[in-house]
From TrEMBL, chain A:
Keywords: Cell membrane, Membrane, Transmembrane, Transmembrane helix, Transport. This is ABC transporter permease. GO terms for biological process: transmembrane transport. Belongs to the binding-protein-dependent transport system permease family. It is found in: Cell membrane. It comes from Cryobacterium glaciale. Pfam families: BPD_transp_1 (PF00528), BPD_transp_1_N (PF19300). GO terms for cellular component: plasma membrane. The chain crosses the membrane at residues 31-53, 126-148, 160-184, 227-247, 285-306, 335-357.
UniProtKB/TrEMBL annotation, chain B:
Belongs to the ABC transporter superfamily. Pfam families: ABC_tran (PF00005), oligo_HPY (PF08352). It comes from the Bacteria. One of its GO terms (cellular component) is plasma membrane. GO terms for molecular function: ATP binding; ATP hydrolysis activity. Residues 5-260, 296-537 form the ABC transporter domain. The keyword Nucleus does not apply. One of its GO terms (biological process) is peptide transport. It is a peripheral membrane protein. Keywords: ATP-binding, Cell membrane, Membrane, Nucleotide-binding, Transport. It is found in: Cell membrane. This is ABC transporter ATP-binding protein.
UniProtKB/TrEMBL annotation, chain C:
Gene3D superfamilies: MetI-like. GO terms for cellular component: plasma membrane. PANTHER family: D,D-DIPEPTIDE TRANSPORT SYSTEM PERMEASE PROTEIN DDPC-RELATED, OLIGOPEPTIDE TRANSPORT SYSTEM PERMEASE PROTEIN APPC. It is a multi-pass membrane protein. The chain crosses the membrane at residues 36-58, 104-129, 136-161, 167-187, 229-254, 277-299. This is ABC transporter permease. Pfam families: BPD_transp_1, OppC_N. Keywords: Cell membrane, Membrane, Transmembrane, Transmembrane helix, Transport. SUPFAM superfamilies: MetI-like. Residues 101-299 form the ABC transmembrane type-1 domain. Its main location: membrane. It is found in: Cell membrane. Residues 350-359 have a biased composition (Basic and acidic residues).
Amino acid sequence: MTTVAVKPSVPVGGRVSKKKTSPGGGIGRYLLIRFLLIFPTIFILVSMVFWLMRTTGDPITAALGGKLPPEQLAERIQAAGYDRPIIVQYFEYLGQVFTGNFGTTISTNRPVSEVLLTYGSATAELVFYALIVAFVIGIPLGMVAAYWRDKAPDAFLRVFAILCYATPVFFAGLLLKLVFAVWLNVLPVAGRSTTGSELQLQLLPNPTGIYTIDALRTGDPAVLGDVLAHAVLPGVALGLLTAGVFLRLVRTNVIGTLGTDYVDAARSRGVNEFRLVSKHAYRPALIPIITVIGLQIALLLGGAVLTETTFEWQGLGFMLIEFIKARDFVAVQGIVALLAVIVALSNFIVDIIAALIDPRVRY
Amino acid sequence: MTDVVRIDNLNVTFATDGGAVKAVDGVSLRVAPGEVLAIVGESGSGKTVTAKTILGLLPETAIARGAVILSSKDGSNSNDVLAVSKQKLRQLRGTDVSMVFQEPSTALNPVFTVGWQIAEGIRSHGEFTRKQARAKAIEILGRVGIPDPESRVDYYPHQFSGGQKQRVVIAMALVLDPGLIVADEPTTALDVTVQAEILDLLRRCRDEFGTAIVLITHNMGVVADLADRVVVMYEGKIVEEALAQELFSNPQHDYTKRLLGSVPHVGHGTTRASARLAAREPDWVDQAPVVVADHLEIQYPGRLGKPGFTAVDGVSFVIRSGEVLGLVGESGSGKTTIGRAMGGLTRVTGGSLTVHGHEMNGFKERAFKKVRSDIGFVFQDPASSFNPLLTIAECVAEPLVVHGRAANPRAARKRVNELLEAVQLPRTFGDRYPHELSGGQRQRASLARALALEPSLLIADEPTSALDVSVQAKVLELFAEIQAEFGFAALFISHDLAVVDILADRIAVLYKGKLVEEGTGAEVLGAPKDPYTQRLLASLPVPDPAAQALRRGELLLLRAAG
Amino acid sequence: MTTLTTEATNVPKAPLWTRLPVVHQLRQSIGLQRGMLVVGLIITGVFILTAIFAPLLAPYGYSQLRGDNGLFGAQQAPSGEHLLGTTVGGYDVLSRVIWGSQTAITVMVVAVLLSIFAGVALGLVSGYFGGWLDRVLVVICDAVYAFPALLLAIVMGIVISGGRSDLFGGILAAAISITVVFIPQYFRVIRAETVRIKAEAYVESARVLGASNGRIMFRHVLRNATRTLPLIFTLNASEALLTLAGLGFIGFGIEPSSAAEWGYDLNKSLSDVSSGIWWTSLFPGLAIVLVVLGITLVGESLNDLADPRLRSRRAPGKTAVAPITPAEIRDPAGRIDPSGIYGSLSTPRVRSDGLESTS
């Protein structure tokens, strides 16, 4: 998912700018505003999901409609409180979300929060690997493209970036599977680990759910190797998509800063080209780059759903699809609500980082 | 002694959207060590391109031919900038030649401290430890006049004022002791009073550091203040070269004469103003004034707990019908705010401002709309004063259509043609788009639009500040003629005393939102009472080197006193 | 009255056809940027033609299971009869790919049409009037578009058709979810442009005149604010397709009896991959990649060409010297502040796909 935004044109003040004596409180106020904005964001998204889902009727009918006789159905509905006025249910739901209580799944009859925790760690692991791939590939290549602007390497990299964006995550995953898992047979086809390793991991006291960490804790290199091998293809598939975005992002912003007067001024003092790109142009470009990276979390989450389906990676995305097939809307709502919270929080964190980097906000 | 730089038959061609453009055409010049050479010209003359070529800073769309021989400060090494390898060129930059840029706020990287940026330049040319580089940075900051350099070295650029930023830029240029500094319009973006200080600093560079300076500028006053020798460029060629005093007292080439003739002098307008005053009817003073400001106050609201900013603080003045009031001030003085308030673009928060008898404090748009047809406004920036998607005729007809004098632009065309002729633009220009007109032409069209409804009040906000000197002179002359012919009252806002002097009957000087002086041109410019006005006047460089030298002395005294 | 020389620039007006939008850019560009634009246009052109002439081009129908020689048979490798093989369900791959282009183009058109008008109108009004309305809208839009479009599409899919869909339902689900996410995008960009243009001298001039708000908004602001639209437009179209395919892949796709859809085919081919059957997944996937590639190439090169900073120019010496237009305006001082963090509540950001929108 891509988002569009524009740089504002704030003209630099007057002919003689007054000396800035704004206190450090500037950053505090800014962050406070951003923090307060988290709540409306979550509120809006969660409400949207609630109202949309409820237009299909109450969750119990949707899930068990054809399977139970009407009396039992009505009983269940009443027990769960779905026969009360919808507004009441809505506010109760909001309250629950903010206290972390997401209800109980209909299909498996477990607390939704438990589902979130168990499968959330799997998704977190996948997203983590994808981000590593994206950072390692996207950012340096973006700088290279900016350095070789309009020449052959740049052309090649730009097309590569567009291809990364144009290739749906699942297709990339399919291709990777085909090549590496089936034809070359060097990597596993699906899943997070072999059953053997999985058993070992579950035997650990207090498993974190993050297989890499757990594998390290077992101290068994075979298990670790197995887990990592399973993570390669999904991580690369999801990571490439984001890498393409990072590449173009870095490229555009660094080219933008390369054209500024202060880089020209540094050039006039004899700073060499490479340092101009990697330091003088790069750091000011980071500010808009970082803010956009925050928005990428949303892209990653959407992509995670698809990647998990492709590789049978039992994370939130995978479970989301399963729950949807089972018409378990309580669980679906819970997962989507959690994702909304994650999106809002990551935007906030990113705003903090950007504000910290930009000295104009600090002083 | 070897020249610090020698340019032989330089030709530079650019690739633009319109095809290849020859920016520099067969230019040859030399600069001796410790000499200040000024390259003067208007936009498109090629002066900036020539200067940038000395550093090899041309963009890739440019092709340069000829020779630019750069020598090191002690005269031992000489290199042809155009022929040398990229490696060598990088070494030359900063050590043999460095540059001072026009706009200090964009010449400094906002995310690094100034100390770091200075140190970057140092460490690109030799093995220096961080400590050594930092020490050098502190030293150079002190020498260019930044107070408290030990702590300021860790400041970010936005923590400095405009003038201080320019000092920092000059410090960066000086730190490796180059033989030559190329200064590209170093004071154009600065206020007049700050400009005088920076010029002093540059003079010190020459005297104390022994650095030669190539000074690019279009401001003849600056040239008279600083330059030893002058080169005049026009359309890529050199048309005249002479010692500074020679050039001003005895210009040879027609273009130079025209250029010098276009420069506004303080004192030019005095006779004209008194003549106009004499020509007015006896009871003119008693007629109802067009604009009355009484303790006018305009405050911008603060944001979320921050205090508001008072742009205009208790200003009182009067504009009578047919009178031109010149409003002068530096940035932050509030002059533009007053103009905008008169046009109904900014709200008045205190005091009173009456325009055509209509009170602006607490005004209601509906009532004011009638008055709007009696006000014309000319804006500063010719680049954005017209909707790029409409033709000039459509733009000029807008007032007529909005106020119902014509049904649509086509119906108004006759009147538009009349207006265009009044501002001396051919009728066919009405069919052109704004980007097809030059800056001066656009400002004239802007004037035509402002006059469309025959207003009795015209507000002009720095209408000529963005124009070249010769173009400015023509537009100002046109303005004066039209004002005499149509007889409207006018508020003419400018930062340039000399420009205001040409047109204004009365002059008001603003400083930080307050009115510090008001009177006729003769009074304000001839015998200013307020110390700020005196300093402002003394800082304004005049295009006459000998006179300017005297004025410098006076300015020093003023600064010491006040 | 002194006669001022009319520094007339006698630039003859170029013929109309060269000033048309895409043609103008095509002639202006050189080298790599032109290459990108040309390739993008060709691919997009092929796509559109395929969609229009699908009935003529495809050897079989999209849900055709048998031909003259009886049942096609499932998972047949590419052969003379089935150039790209058959799917696990027994359909002809080539036909499904060709027919799929119709579905693709339909969803793109619907998605764009639904979002563009609302987004532009909201952005214009919000940016022009500012105030509380503006702030509220900005917060809402920020929240909505930060959310993964696919998830929203899934929810929409459930709501609209309970999961399994016919052609209409499937397309509508994808299109509406894209709309919900893209209206904020148009809103953002148009709003930022409106805010910028509001401060330009010609708008202020109209305000001083006393022109009505409506007149100013439409005559002056809107026409200048829509400069960056073509770009978002292509983004919008690509996203629509990717989301539709995503939906199909998850299992919310359009039934083959209603239409051909590439994502659905990919979903069905998932199990094929483990057995080494490649033709059922490669071709639909390639189709998606190519279409998005083509559209994005067009969008990106148009963006590059619109920004004079990014535009490459012919090196001098290759064309005849054109008359020099006198430039009497000195460079305006003051530069664009890249941070703008202290600006409005919503931090304007560079587009997440890396393309910098010109402002």
